[in-house]
Amino acid sequence: xxxxxxVQVPSAAKAAAAAPTAKPAAKPAAGKDNxxxxxNKPRRRFIWTSIGAFLTANFLMFLxxxxxxxxxxxxxxxxxxxxxxxxxxxxxxxxxxxxIWVVREADRIFAIYGRCTHLGCTPDWKPSExxxxxxxxxxxxxxxxxxxxxxxxxxxxxxxxELDATGQIVxxxxxxxxxxxxxxxxxxxxxxxxxx
Length: 196
Prior knowledge:
Strand content: 15-25%
Number of helices: 3
Structural class: alpha+beta
Distance between the termini: 153 Å
CATH superfamily of the domain at 77-195: Rieske [2Fe-2S] iron-sulphur domain
Shape: elongated
Largest sheet: 7 strands, antiparallel
Radius of gyration: 46 Å
CATH topology of the domain at 77-195: Rieske Iron-sulfur Protein
Order of helices and strands: HHEEHEEEEEEEEE
Helix content: 10-25%
Mean pLDDT: 83
Number of strands: 11
């Protein structure tokens, strides 16, 4: 028995040695089934940049809440010059910056506040027609600011006007004199004009 066992063992070893050795598995060919997508770096960068910008904008809006919004307006009290600087008639030099016209008559100087009493538009001075005309709804005013045509219910207001210590004219648009419809005329009150 031992002879047969001895004989079989070497023949088994010979058979194992004679068998072809296993080759490593071949790499599969590149194709649709074996494609592994590569990360798209520009797209990722764009997405992260967008997220960062969104969060930054929201953070800045959050911070803006803690700072009050302030409206800076020009002073309502200002000098317009000396009485001798004004000729008879309507002077438009201060319409853009202060919304007033300085009017000189033979015996007085006053300042008309340039706001239509209908809906608040700023009228235009028409020297050829000798009147103020509102461009919004056609209200007309005399050179003294008295309404005579259109939907304006009353005359335009006059700003407070006085002379300072140096003799210059000081106008205060926060203090207005009006002539209410059917009411008392305040255009002759002290401060509504300067006698000359």
